[in-house]
Design the sequence.
């Protein structure tokens, strides 16, 4: 097990900065997600922690030891890739035992370890099969087996489920999380899939263009997004944004937007300028009483709820309402916002006003 501390970590490739000064802490035993769009620097960050890439500057502490410039083999970290890097000519047993044999472990110990790991992963009955003919899921289990068999301090996983189809991916995500809960080893996991990050992670770092936008629990990043980028990247459909010019005062409990007063959580810093009122779809309800009105332009049925798109003077809004509520395209509806859950952003910087 390991606690990992990242301090002012930076990586440049020539003139290009892939990771800007990043700092965060991964607690011992945590399932930690690096989340962001393609090219934001997730993999580079992960590779630096694993020792596959050396930082341009900054420090990496694993259990209190600074290892930033040390080679991978001195860090005792296992790396699990997306493309199940297995030895195709070997059977499952040999693939899993290979790291132990190359460490010089005795034959009896190797047999015991492989038996234990294959029991944990439920692959005892395929140990003698060549990996070439296995399904994607079984191959991924073998790759995991090879990573966990040597009991490293931590696991680095780069989109490990990326090559699986959607349905199986969800199943493997649950399996992986259950495996982690049983073993308790610190795991750093790269994904661009916000749902996967929210479902699996204890903590999430959200990255964009090499910069950490926010670091927190899934609930923190969903309920209290630090920036418009996070509010938009997390949640499906994402947070609604209503843009307006106005001012907020410390302690104020509402803002004047267009012709309506909108409730906001109080105790804000004073601010005047271009504001954005951010509200999640599930915090908008459609009622007849409200003065804020709009026209229904679409409704998407999702089982117990539906996503209703309403055209308003401030732009289109998406509301998540019970699917039992009858709405018709073209009809006028009133909108009520649960303002205590809203977030105000400075439109220029994109940062949340706190
Ligand atoms: P993806 O999910 O697409 O892999 P990512 O968030 O993991 O994205 P990185 O792979 O860390 O992103 O890459 C961040 C940026 O650094 C990208 O623009 C990439 O092209 C660049 N980059 C990564 N490795 C190198 C390298 N060895 N040389 C030059 N540029 C690189």
Sequence:
């Amino acid at each position: 097990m390991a606690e990992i501390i990242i301090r002012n970590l930076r990586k440049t490739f020539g003139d290009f900065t892939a990771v800007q000064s990043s700092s965060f802490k991964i607690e011992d035993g945590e399932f930690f997600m690096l989340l962001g769009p393609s090219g934001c620097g997730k993999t580079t960050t992960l590779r630096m922690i694993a020792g596959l890439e050396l930082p341009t500057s900054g420090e990496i502490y694993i259990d209190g030891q600074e290892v930033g410039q040390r080679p991978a083999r001195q860090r005792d970290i296992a790396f699990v890739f997306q493309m199940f890097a297995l030895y195709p000519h070997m059977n499952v047993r040999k693939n899993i035992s290979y790291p132990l044999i190359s460490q010089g472990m005795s034959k009896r110990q190797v047999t015991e370890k492989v038996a234990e790991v294959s029991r944990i992963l439920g692959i005892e009955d395929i140990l003698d099969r060549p990996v070439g003919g296995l399904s994607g899921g079984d191959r991924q289990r073998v790759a995991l087996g090879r990573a966990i068999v040597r009991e490293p301090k931590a696991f680095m996983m780069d989109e490990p489920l990326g090559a699986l189809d959607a349905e199986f991916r969800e199943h493997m995500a649950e399996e992986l999380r259950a495996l982690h809960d049983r073993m308790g080893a610190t795991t750093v996991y790269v994904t661009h899939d916000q749902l996967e990050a929210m479902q699996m992670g204890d903590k999430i770092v959200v990255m964009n263009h090499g910069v950490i936008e926010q670091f927190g629990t899934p609930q923190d990043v969903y309920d209290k997004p630090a920036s418009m980028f996070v509010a938009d990247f997390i949640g499906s459909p994402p947070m609604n944004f209503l843009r307006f010019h106005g001012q907020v005062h410390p302690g104020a409990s509402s803002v004047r937007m267009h012709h309506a007063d909108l409730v906001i959580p109080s105790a804000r810093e004073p601010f005047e300028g271009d504001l954005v009122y951010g509200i999640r779809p599930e915090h908008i309800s459609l009622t007849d009483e409200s003065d804020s009105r709009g026209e229904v332009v679409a409704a998407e049925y999702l089982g117990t709820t539906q996503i209703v798109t309403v055209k308003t003077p401030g732009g289109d809004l998406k509301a998540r309402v019970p699917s039992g509520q009858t709405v018709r395209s073209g009809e006028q509806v009133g909108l009520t916002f649960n303002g205590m859950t809203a977030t105000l952003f400075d439109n220029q910087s994109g940062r949340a006003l706190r």
Remarks:
- The longest strand covers residues 16-26.
